[in-house]
Amino acid sequence: MTTTFDAAMPPRDQGALWVEEKAPEWRCVWLPRHGTYLAYRDMEMANPSAPKPAVAEPKPDEVLRAIELIADLRELVWAWVYRRV
Questions:
Q1: What are the tens digits of pLDDT across the range 62-75?
Q2: Which has the closest alpha carbon to 27: 18, 35, 84?
């Protein structure tokens, strides 16, 4: 991935980049004013009316764990739906 320098854009936080590396379908940003990382699913941003799961945690490893829990929940719901159909 190539990044171009933009003076108006602050440098990316290493923790946020680590989360994006571990969970490629998610985007993550550091919000220094709030002291937290915010992660959201990148693919769902194209549809503004779709629900957008997001994660806000103070540490990158906690963000990744929350993302994993969302994935586990999604799998559980799909398994339940599959059994009901």
A1: 999 999 999 999 89
A2: 18
